[in-house]
Amino acid sequence: MRRRNSLVDLFAGGGGFARGFYEAGFEPVLAVDIDEASVKTYVSNFPRSLVISEDVRGLECWRLRNLINNLKVDVLIGSPPCEPFTGSNPRRMKDPLDRLYKDDMGRLVLEFIRILECLEPSYFVMENVPAILDGDLGSALKEEFGRAGYEVYFNLLRAEDYGTPSRRLRVFASNIIINPPRVSKSVTVAEALSGLPEPSADPQIPNHEPPPSLSKSKLKKALRLKWGGSAVTYEGAEGRLLPNLIKLHPYRVAPTVLGSSRFIHPFENRLLTVREQARLMGFPDNHAFLGGRDQQYNQVGEAVPPPLAKAIALELLKRLDA
Fold first, then answer.
1. Where are the alpha helices (DSSP H) in the chain?
2. Which of 7, 37, 88, 89 has the CA that lies 20 to 30 A from 242?
3. pLDDT at 237
4. For the domain 189-301, what is the CATH superfamily, name and number?
5. What is this structure's pTM?
6. What digits encode the pLDDT tens for the residues 106-121?
């Protein structure tokens, strides 16, 4: 039997990035995340992986190497928090370089690079929002990755081009150019949600319990909404107003799913369940999410969509198998 390629996953969340790599033939050998609910989710879905709930800043190189028994790592992946960089954060620092070097959360990108230098994998892929390249950030990141011994390419990929039923433009920093073949047809909301029964506590479909009820005022707004309209807005960076409680258009790709996203079903005046939201991100129904319901929604919205992750993984496999 062919050996599965080894994968180390930093800022692992609920395992969306790893799910795509696993389906492509990789074995997650070590995953790290500080959020306990996410770690429980990861363990339940990848029981053979060593998963630790710790702040990566406390992980010393010698310990990391011991944890994986000095195994040669084929690929290192990771999704450091995007909050310091994203335009949806009203408290984002004004100077782009400050977001990387002065914001405590932004500096976690440098921790990814530190661990990259420690583990020396054959390949790495780090995901974040495109705004991580604002201003002089792209040049700064090239310098930082260069100090770790790696050339870096910034690959801008749209999840909907690879079979994900929701829009999502993200940058994938890697030591190779990643340009997977695109799917011929987009997956619509109606196609993604098809086949699911009414929400219930049936354990055969995890995370498909009845969603939280809309308040009377929001339900009143929802009843008047057309497909694509939103019931509320919230403030992002530079005072921009961003939509939430969007009534999904059934025959289009869904908007970007975020941790804070809540969507209104296209045909029913209710919120989507966690499972329905996970379907919009391309998760298989057997990928269960643990923790409180808000934690589950958050794990879904902060993930790398598995179909996109798998497309990336298959590109790396071509290199590893060459």
1. 16-24, 36-45, 61-67, 96-101, 108-119, 137-147, 189-193, 216-224, 274-280, 293-301, 306-320
2. 37
3. 66
4. DNA Methylase, subunit A, domain 2 (3.90.120.10)
5. 0.95
6. 999 999 999 999 999 9
